[in-house]
Amino acid sequence: MEIVNNLSEKALHDYAIVKQAIAGNEKAFEELFQRYRESVFFMILKMVNNSTDAEDLMFEAFEKAFSSLNYYSPQYAFSTWLFKIASNNAIDFIRKKKTMIVSFDKHDIHADEKGAIYNIQADMLSPEEEAIREQRARFTREKVALLKGRYRQLIELRYFEEYSYEEIARALRIPLGTVKAQLFRARELLLNILEKSEIPGKEEYL
């Protein structure tokens, strides 16, 4: 049962947009993103003290929030719920980073072992592995073709043509923020398609 009596006018407006997004209105996702992108970014920036990490974590937070909108309860303002997701995401990032630092500090690698590690060529695949990779690439292109125009174009430019976000923005003549917002929505739609397909390791595609 909806609990909206305790929400402010701003929160009620957000909730109306959230319901539109849940119903499949793509513009609603964009509106929520534009309303809170800066505030979420600066909140995370204070936590991680690195603008690049903060930007990545911001988009991850929106992606997690947008993919979980069905679980949002109007008992709380959408902004409160979103900031909680963003904060938890940043905390997990900080913990993982600290764990990696401690791990490297505690494990002293001998010089000869370092040389062996640095010389590992991870991109060398066996013929069987190469065939599997090519099969997966063909499969992914087939599924990407099922996306609607703009989303298909974004995925192709980013992952097949390897365009940067800035290059995509220039090519499509749209704002950089719009590129990133629509791209993670496109990734979400593509993952939904892959989830319905029988193929192992589909999480590795994106």
Q: Secondary-structure element sequence?
A: HHHHHHHHH
Strand count, sense and barrel status of the largest sheet are: none
Q: Strand tally, please?
A: 0
Query: CATH fold name of the largest domain, please?
Result: Rna Polymerase Sigma Factor, Chain: A
Helical content, roughly?
over 70%
CATH architecture level-2 label of the largest domain:
Orthogonal Bundle
**Mean pLDDT across all residues, rounded?**
76
In a few lines, what is going on in this structure?
This protein has 206 residues and is an all-alpha fold. 72% of the residues lie in helices and 0% in strands.
List keywords for this structure.
mainly alpha; single chain; disordered C terminus; Rna Polymerase Sigma Factor, Chain: A; 2 domains; 9 helices; 206 residues; Arc Repressor Mutant, subunit A
Structure explained in plain terms:
The protein has 206 residues and is mostly helical. It folds into 2 domains: 9-104, Rna Polymerase Sigma Factor, Chain: A; 126-204, Winged helix-like DNA-binding domain superfamily/Winged helix DNA-binding domain (Arc Repressor Mutant, subunit A), CATH 1.10.10.10. Helices cover 72% and strands 0% of the residues. The chain has helices at 9-22, 26-48, 51-67, 78-106, 111-118, 127-144, 149-160, 165-172, 176-195. The longest helix has 29 residues, at 78-106. Residues 101-123 and 200-206 have low confidence and may be disordered.
